Amino acid sequence: MSELALKLSPEESLQVDEFGELRQRARRALMQHGFPDLKTEEWKYTSLRVLQQREFQAASASASQLPRLPFDACVLHFDNGVLDPDAVELIDGITLEPAGPDDLGDASYGGREDAFAWLNLANFSRAWKLRISGEPSRPLVLAFSSADDFSAAVHPRLLIELADNARATIVEIHSGSGEGMTNSVANMKLGQGAGLSHVFRCSDHQAIRVGRTRVDVGRDAEYKAYILDSGARLGRQDLQVFLNAAGAQTELDGTVLLDTRQHVDYHTAVDHCTGHTESREMFRYLADGAGVGVFNGRIHIHEDADDSHSDMSIASLLLGPMARINAKPELEIYSEEVTAGHGATIGQLDDDALFYLRSRGMTDEDANALLKYGFASAPLENMADEAVRNWLLEELRQTL
Length: 400
Fold this sequence. Notes:
It contains eight helices and 20 strands.
């Protein structure tokens, strides 16, 4: 995979600016470790063959369309991966500024399993810092859109901080139909008593989408993620949540819909770093055609993290004979006074339920759609923001 590293991060492409030394260090790490292959445990179900086959051009100016939203929002538009700060209209409680080297100075990753994080650090053009305080009156939308001719590899990088007792909703949208790659990294920190609802809406079709999100949750703070992913040619999302102080909580809920020539991989990791913390995860996968889904969920309860509670479930429906789902729940527990559990199921639509609905006058098509919607909507129905929840559920209906 060293050839792929040279292809995606040629030395002459590195920017020379205040981040130059950091970029050089990241590129050296990337060249040392290379990219993962199927022998790398964290990537054993996800091949990078499509990435090796594609050629990427320099990013160009674009006029990609923002998705239409049925609710008012403060929007940051990353057009082909680039944010124009002059086009942003912020609201009270949200500030935006460029990040400096000191903000990224502690960026450090592992070996080849973290190759895309090193790639981002070596090749990002600008990093942005968002600060949220109080309770903004509207959701904050981070819209990553691309035009039909998008064929570049772009590397957005964000730092998001919620002040003590801040409450916010962030809607992260990835959309487009080009064949480029978006490789994003986001680091989030929640202060004491803060609450964040973080929505992922992904529909990249033929694009390659790789994301890494790290969330540090403070005392009595709460991070909730809601995911609706309708596929990409190759999609990979790493979501790492660290419960760092007593009272910290997280809930991760996701629905993934896959069809032919789509491969989507979600890796979640929740670390109970101290006691009196809670986590819950629920994911639903629906795979049709020759779609391939991967879910790897890891719960790590550290030593002396007594009175920690966690629960994880992954359920999947195979809608076609060629579809595949790879589910791998993991528990790593070093404390005794805890509760932790996980479950994984894979099946097909229930024939008895279909027969019952048809006996009540439904067509085969309507019966199938109703059962799939009931299965897929469960992770999204817990969201508190009614307007955003209704939008997500409508997006799900249209996709199904």
